[in-house]
Each structure stands twice: as C-alpha cells, then as structure tokens.
Specification:
Layout lengths: L18 H14 L3 H11 L16 H23 L6 H18 L3 H12 L3 H14 L1
Helix pairs in contact: 1-2, 3-4, 4-5, 4-6, 5-6
Length: 142
C-alpha cells in the first residue's frame, strides 16, 4: 500500500419507489449533474427530522386547574368591574395592586405559599415582603 488514503467502501441500499418517482429522481439528478445516489443522500442529510418527544407537554388544563383558573378570572372580573364603576375610580397603580393581591390570594389558596413568598421577595427586595406575606396569610385563614 502506498501513502494514499484508502477510501471508505460504499454501502449499498435499495429503495422502493414507483417508476414515475424513479424517473423524476433521475431527471433531478441529471439536472444537478450528480448520480441518483448522490442526490438522494444529499437531500436526505439536508433534512433535519424532528426529534421524538418522549413526554410531550400538556396543552390542556386538568379539571382542577380549569376550576381554579375560572375562579381566579371571575374574582378578577368582579373586582375590576366594581373598581371601575365606583365614584372613586382607582388609577393604574391601585388596579395593579388589587390584581396582585388577588393573585397572591390564589397562590396561597392553592398551596403555593412558598412560591408566593419568593415572588414577593424578588419583587420588593426588602422587609415589606414579610409584612405582606402575613397580611395574605391572615386574609386567607378565615
């Protein structure tokens, strides 16, 4: 053997297609100036098939999640409707505060008190978080 690199042996594989499909592939290969095999390999390798997802994400809510969401939206709708219809209509900050309180209450009711505390600490970054946590806890105890 001389210093030339030995080429890998080609693997042969047959495919099944109709006579018309074979003729169309042959015509494409001729147009591109390559063999049918080269055309098929090049086209196959350019395509990235999607990876198979073992546990696809749920796209729907479960029955309890639906009930919780409907209840939260109902409370928000009632509260915002009541605020907008009053003589002392609140500004943006007050509406935002009310919506935030509703969300905190919902988090506590659904057993996500720890998540609520972390959220408060991230948003407020001071001692107000502990005071608000106590208020939400007391409001939801009754």
């Amino acid at each position: 053997m001389t210093g030339r690199r030995v080429e890998e042996r080609a693997t042969m594989h047959s495919i099944s297609c109709s006579r018309l499909e074979r003729e169309r592939i042959r015509a494409l290969a001729e147009r591109e100036g390559v063999s049918m095999s080269k055309l098929l390999v090049d086209r196959a390798l350019k395509r990235n098939p999607p990876t198979k997802v073992r546990n696809p994400p749920r796209l729907v809510l479960g029955p309890e999640e639906q009930k919780s969401l409907v209840e939260t939206v109902r409370v928000i709708g009632e509260t915002v409707g009541a605020l907008e219809g009053s003589d002392e209509s609140p500004g943006f900050a007050e509406t935002l505060r009310v919506l935030f309180e509703i969300r905190l209450d919902a988090m506590t009711r659904t057993g996500r008190h720890g998540t609520m505390v972390r959220l408060l600490e991230q948003v407020l970054q001071d001692s107000r978080a502990a005071r608000i946590e106590e208020e939400v806890y007391e409001r939801n105890r009754s």
